């Protein structure tokens, strides 16, 4: 019998699918990093999952950039980028176990075993699969069984809580279903039934006022700086109230983004300046850019420093996988015994 863990075990995965943006940071990453001081955290880069869409992404990016990009190079690059992003933003590999999914091959093995207790009907109801196929992504077996791989990620470290965005809730429900069925089939409480924790409900607006998202092309990247950042901030959509007229802060995207960085007093001050007509949208955008620079400046420096030492990053990822495998192998021993594989 397992001793009950003293602290909750938290796990979450992030797909290496491109540059991370302010929505990802304020909606998810910031909380992931804060949790490392409160629980046993396992965070990993879901590169197996990313394989379901990487060839499609490589094709699209090849067209956009008018040069041939290979899926393998892209996956490697994006995986390194996510590692650099998380480490630069404060993930501490001494506190949280941080690894690359494919460095823990037991995950793929457990996926197979779980697939034998997963009902086809359960997977057929997956909304995310249907949406991806509608978007033109190949309906591969891997894309279809994506939720089983996700269940394996979660169950293999016997996590209790999984922080995710709303779009992943159905996958968590499937994980609970699969874990329950496995436990019932093999007569043992091998897997704790995990629960999800919804990432902060805040909806960070993009430059066009819709929810910031890679798929809308309206993002402000966490690690953008200098002229490109200025260009993006200046492109944030506002209404056309002329300079000198009072402005309404409530529906303004620039104001909403500024609030993510500002103290309550600074928010009040900017709201008052909007209402008094003493600041225009251009001025507000300048203040926003200053805030972004002040907040992310130290993280940018850390990222550059890490990017210059890819071997150190590789060592960190390997050490994370070594720690994760102590747990995944313990789980697999139980699974082998319970199922008769050993
Ligand atoms: P994208 O929409 O850019 O593809 P993802 O779906 O990969 O982003 O989101 C990864 C995480 O970031 C999720 O936990 C999600 O809730 C969070 N997130 C993404 N965009 C936003 C946003 N605009 N506001 C708040 N949270 C967001
Ligand atoms: N499917 C998740 C996403 O697209 C990433 C992910 C893979 C994940 N495995 C996980 C998240 C396990 C939480 C737990 O965002």
Provide key terms for this protein.
single chain, 342 residues, mainly alpha, Rossmann fold, Tyrosyl-Transfer RNA Synthetase, three-stranded parallel β-sheet, binds adenosine-5'-diphosphate, binds tryptophan
Shape: elongated
* DSSP summary: helix tally: 14
> Structurally, how many domains make up the residues?
2
CATH topology-level fold name of the largest domain: Rossmann fold
Bound molecules: adenosine-5'-diphosphate, tryptophan
CATH superfamily of the largest domain: HUPs
Rg over alpha carbons: 22 Å
Largest sheet: 3 strands, parallel
- Compressed to H and E, one letter per element, the order equals EHEHHEHHHHHEHEHHHHH
Q: Kindly name the structural category.
A: mainly alpha
Instruction: Provide the CATH top-level class of the largest domain.
Output: Alpha Beta
- Low-confidence runs: none
Q: Please state how the strands of the largest beta sheet are arranged side by side.
A: 1-2-3
Work out the number of β strands: 5
Task: Give the strand content.
Answer: 5-15%
């Amino acid at each position: 019998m397992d001793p009950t863990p003293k602290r909750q075990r938290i796990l979450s995965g992030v797909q290496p699918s491109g540059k991370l943006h302010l929505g990802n940071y304020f909606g998810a990453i910031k909380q992931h990093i804060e949790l490392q001081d409160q629980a046993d955290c396992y965070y990993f880069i879901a590169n197996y999952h990313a394989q379901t869409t990487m060839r499609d992404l490589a094709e699209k990016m090849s067209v956009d950039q008018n040069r041939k990009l290979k899926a393998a190079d892209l996956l490697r690059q994006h995986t390194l980028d996510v590692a650099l992003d998380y480490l630069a933003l404060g993930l501490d590999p001494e506190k949280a176990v941080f690894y690359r999914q494919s460095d823990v091959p037991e995950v793929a093995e457990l996926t197979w075993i779980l697939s034998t207790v997963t009902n086809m009907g359960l997977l057929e109801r997956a909304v995310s699969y249907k949406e991806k196929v509608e978007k033109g992504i190949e309906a591969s077996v891997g894309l279809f069984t994506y939720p089983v791989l996700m269940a394996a990620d979660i169950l293999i470290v016997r996590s209790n809580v999984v922080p995710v965005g709303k779009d992943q809730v159905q996958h968590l429900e499937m994980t609970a279903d699969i874990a329950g069925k496995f436990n019932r089939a093999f007569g043992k409480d091998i897997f704790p039934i995990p629960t999800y924790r919804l990432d902060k409900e805040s909806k960070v607006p993009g430059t066009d006022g819709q929810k910031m998202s890679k798929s809308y092309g309206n993002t402000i990247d966490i690690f953008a700086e200098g002229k490109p950042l200025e260009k993006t901030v200046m492109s944030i959509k506002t209404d056309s109230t002329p300079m000198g007229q009072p402005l309404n802060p409530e529906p303004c995207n620039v104001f909403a983004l500024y609030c993510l960085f500002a103290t309550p007093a600074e928010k009040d001050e900017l709201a008052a300046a909007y209402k008094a007509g003493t600041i225009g949208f251009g001025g507000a955008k300048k203040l926003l850019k200053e805030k972004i620079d002040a907040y992310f400046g130290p993280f940018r420096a850390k990222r550059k420093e890490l990017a210059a030492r890819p071997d150190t990053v590789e060592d960190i990822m390997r050490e994370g996988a070594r720690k994760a495998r102590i747990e995944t192998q313990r789980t697999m021993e139980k699974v082998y015994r319970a199922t008769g594989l050993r």
